[in-house]
Hints:
Elements: H1 3-20, E1 25-28, H2 32-39, H3 46-63, H4 67-87, H5 94-102, H6 111-124, H7 131-141, E2 143-144, H8 146-164, E3 175-181, E4 188-194, E5 197-203, E6 208-209, H9 210-220, H10 225-239, E7 247-249, H11 253-270, H12 274-282, H13 291-304, H14 306-316, H15 322-332, H16 337-348, H17 357-370, H18 374-382, H19 387-390
Parallel strand pairs: 3-5
Antiparallel strand pairs: 1-7, 2-6, 4-5
Amino acid sequence: MSDSAFVERYLLLGLRLGGLIPGLVDAYYGPPELSARVEGESAPNAAALVAEAQALLAGLDGAIQDEQRARWLRAQLVGLETVARRLAGEAVSYLDEVERCYGIRPAFVPEEEFAGAHEALDVALPGKGPVHQRYLAWEQDQTVERDALLPAFEALSTDLRERSRDLVSLPDGEAVELELVQDEPWLAFNYYQGGLKSRAAFNTDLPWSAFDLFTVVAHELYPGHHTEAAVKEQHLVREQGRLEAAVLLIGTPQSLIAEAIAMLAPEIVSGDRIDELSGRLLAPLGIPYDPETAAVVRTQAATLACVATNAALLLHEKGHPLDEVRAYARRWSVRSDETIDKGIWFITDETWRAYVFCYTAGLEYARRFVDGDPGRFRRLLTEQIVPADLNPTA
């Protein structure tokens, strides 16, 4: 089988699975005749898609000669095979699902780490009383009015776009469109449209804090998701003809790498001075910011993000009832009940239930791999890298 025929079958497999699982295909800008073919077909049989993924895995070495390209495709196909097996009704343990789909083996984070984060916040947060209440009061003091959100996102994206040029050459013609949305299980989402264009959506179901504005723009746009997608379209698809990169698929290690980039993006673009830069950029917009407290909150929030991964393990691996899982999250998180419920929605959604580990492990792996070197961050943006490249000792 030629490499072009192999890649065509890979694209068709992803598109057909996407027809059965809403949201699995995050973006597609490959040959339009392939998507048209899938749209004109009847719904595929999940077992047949399992067989196709296995056939592609068996034929991979004979079709793809470049070693790194083959490693990337193999990891992708293992993820797609796992998604198809679950869809076909096969029992796959949650730990195996996460590992096969995202290239990481999750583990329970000791609650002592959460207790330590609470102690640090107790010292840093103003006021008296329980840490949870003081955190919510601090966050509420920084609430950004809905009408001010788009102007803030636009101003930040303009500034961070220019800063990202110091990290990587942005292709000519790349652009983003920003919008506010509602009724989604996530805070923000970057829809890559192909043609070097993205549509970034920011969910207004819950109030936005000034604390989150800089990081979400860096994460979703510059130098995060949009930057990665546009740069890889230019480098991998247009220049090297690697059409397999023209589909972005949830449920594959591609997502772990994407979140590794996006989670590290705020640190990289700010020179590890996120809160100092956030305050300076937001001040002309009349948006108040508390950089000293925010720096402590940011450090501890990285630890408390693992409350969500523990909750996912309790629910899907340990089989705890949903009410117990929600109570656990409320015990250890300092976020509002509404925010916690949004997170529970995310880990119970069939498309996203294993995805939560991409954020925490992605940040850990990216920090270790990049180690402050912008050149290594550029590699993440331009190459076909798999999670094992970021964590070779795993």
